[in-house]
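As a warm-up, study this chain.
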Amino acid sequence: MQSNGRRSGEDIEERLLEFAAQIGKIVDVLPETRLGLHIATRSFVQGHRQLRIMRKLARRKARKISCIS
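Now compare it with the structure written out below.
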């Protein structure tokens, strides 16, 4: 953790990976009915969305920093 109380990017990414893994475990135990498959699909998509967004923002920030340097 950084001194100002904010979490580092690596820490947040690690927590998001753990969250995505937990979503995967939950999805695996859902029944294979229409409703179960629908819930599984939506949960999987939403569970991984934040990780994709965070990585995309990190790439943009890295490009911005490299352009300034």
